[in-house]
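Forum: Protein Structure Q&A
Topic: Joint prediction for protein chains with partners

I've read a bunch of threads here and the consensus seems to be that you should model interacting components together rather than docking separate models afterwards. I'd like to see that in practice. Below is the full input, 883 residues plus whatever partners are listed. Could one of the regulars post the assembled result?
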Amino acid sequence: MGDVKIGLEVHAELDTETKLFCPCHTHGSDAPNTLTCPICLGMPGSKPVLNKKVVEYALRLCLATECKIAPEIIFSRKTYFYPDMSKNYQITQYEIPIGSEGVIKLENKDVKLKRIHIEEDPAALTHPSGMQTSTYVLVDYNRSGRPLLEIVTEPVLESPEEARDFMKKLITILNYLDIFDQNECIIKADANISIKEKKFTRVEIKNITGFKEIERALKYEIERQKKEKVIQETRAWDSDNGVTHSLRAKESEDDYGYILDSDLVPIEISQDYIKKIKAELPELAHEKIQRYTENLKIDPMDAQVISSDYQLAKMFEKVSENVSPILAARWVRRELSRVLNYAKKTLEEVKITDKEMSDLLMLLEQGKITQQTAQRIIEKLVEKQFDVNNYVKENNLMIVSNAKELEDICRKILKQNEKIVNDYKSGNEKAFMALVGQVMRETKGKGNPKIINDALKKLI
Amino acid sequence: MSSKDVLKECKNINKEYNYFNTIASDAKEGSGKLKSYYISVKDCICVKDMETTSGSEILKGYKPIFNATIIDKIIKEGGSIIGKTTQDEFGFGSFNVNTKNIPKNPFDKTRTCGGSSGGAAGITQKASFKHIAIAESTGGSIACPASFCGIIGFTPTYGLVSRYGLLDYANSLDKIGIMAKNINDIELMFNIIKGHDKKDSTSLNLELNKDTKIKKIGVIKETLNVDPEIKDLILSKLDNYELVSLPSVEKYSLATYYILAMAEASTNLAKYCGMRYGMHEELKGNFNEYFSKVRSNFFGKEAKRRIILGTFTRMAGYRNAYYLKAAKVRTLIINEYKKAFKKYDLLVSPTMPIIAPKFSEIDKLTPLENYMMDIMTVGPNLAGLPHISLNVGFKDKMPVGIMFIADHLNDNKLIEVGKKWEM
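Posted by a regular:
Agreed with the consensus. Here's the joint model:
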């Protein structure tokens, strides 16, 4: 057992058209309180009706994480008073979650999942002049009733990095299952964290958004716990200032007075239905790696890296419809990743799509541009979107294969670099590469490397 | 009678008897099966743009923005909605005294109409125009006032009539039903408002049993332990019956009913906090202080009692002993009824153990004695069984009701009995 124990409760919003219990749209309007109806506003007399799509999506995640699946869906009321609650109770799953005892496999560890359950999101509160100082709050019910999955891990994570990897892996799985939209859906975590030095006194950190934040918040909290007296409490993560602050001491478990929600009848989950969902389950990361290496003969490392990022995998699969998968894999994994890393951006944050990538690699594969030219274009594509074919034409970047023209350049370079020529002649093979490099530079990277090679050898 | 005269009559009756919380400003006559019928609606059912308070101060001024499913159906068939009838606050009561607007018995103004659908039963007895009342029962709120006011009160199988637009008391028990002076009107209205509604998840998508033959009747033995005059009235009107014993129903149904109903009610009433609708207070203090202030000022005494008791029964540490145990006992009770229905087509009991009491007598009752009055009606309500209360005669010039209970989906047998009764 390590010195740090972390358990996560992750809330992931599902990418459904409509809300969990009413026909309101989940997204599509930013104007507050425009995506509402008597049901998500909790008006007297309104009644919830379960959105079956949510059950399907929840089952996808349960199956992908090897959960035991409940024989029926039942909902409970979790009662507490808060201004973001339209009914002052939240409809959630308590007695029997849809999934239990699952697992998410990280590189070095299997993270056990206690449960996965379905619940409704409360409304959003805004504090017009800041959380601590505002004298009033505004409520936006657009969020009220959006479908959430709560994923609860056992307290088996042992470092902030591991927690980050878990979140990253979970997001990848959600993406793969096509039940989560990274641009629209919110993913948040509450973390239980305790350290050995303080006899594993449990502190809960609320509301950490995204996987980068989780590492930051937990790192901060470990350092704080080492320095300060630790009591059992609930703390909030303040991302702007990079600190956690106490919300309330937690002497006992909260009492939500759960009862079954008898407005919603139990719904059986038949084995046939599970089978159907299973059969329709999209290909998952580990299946992709296998297919990439075995069928497409992709380098295993490339396959690993590409499939660990859903967006990269999607890009790769689209591009490899147009060019050789091996070339596509190499460029998606190495060149695209390189420029993204350099720009410190993720694929969703940049404009480059599979169209640009395909155009570029087709030009390369057909020998119309050189590798160097392609590299330079991909660097530009990360910054802004443009038509690759036009760009090559307008900037005159087509490969130079005119032997006469290249020979002239070679002659000129040889004359300017007599010392290197002599090095080469006295047996230094590297000197030849230096000469090729010089010629390439002179052609602004556009010279056909094979013709240059031949010309240099002939002239020397 | 013109609709103007009808509304005028309602206003006149109301001055004396308090049957309405709201009377419509006008009542348009439509066309359809309910043409020329005037319909009163219990105050816990949403009628668009008509004040709907469920008898509670906390909802004063609240006008729903939508119709309950059954209201749409009634309007479509040409029924004219004349107003919202008085009731115990959120249905919490058997004598309709747990509210500001207390209806008086049409036979004796010093006595109760019964509850919680008191106004509905009163106007049904008093109206001189063609009238049907839409009422609601959670633990007997249709049968009890029907019995006390001498009219027919019909409560269908749970789930047959959509609850969409009904302000919840206890969701697993609430049933919309009908009151009228004759059985044909009950049947007419039942056929209009029943049926599957996809807006209510508990709404049944099942056919009624078409067999309406009544071969065997069982009188529930334990329910005859009442005023002998009431017992004799009941038995004298039945020619062929056997006595049947339902010991679990007798022993456990009252406690089970009140635990479940209060647990559910305490969550249903959480939404009323002065934030989105109904009564407000000056915005002062934090949200907890604000919510408490609104709820303290505008909920009545019985509502508060049920919120506190209901919250208690579902708290950690008590949940197993009360709420969960009651849920299990409910199954036991249903099974006991089911067993009886293997042998009998209908079960019979008095509707209420007494005639309508005087307000002065009610004042002396403790809350527990009050709850005991529902001993006959909570059983079928807990089991979701259809039941009908018919007038069986009078004692001390006050009506006495007899209650017939049928198995689930055998509602038509009750209509059949009603028809025979009138012959």
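Chain A touches chain B at residues 38, 41-50, 77, 79, 81-83, 86-89, 136, 253, 255, 257-265 (CB under 8 Å).
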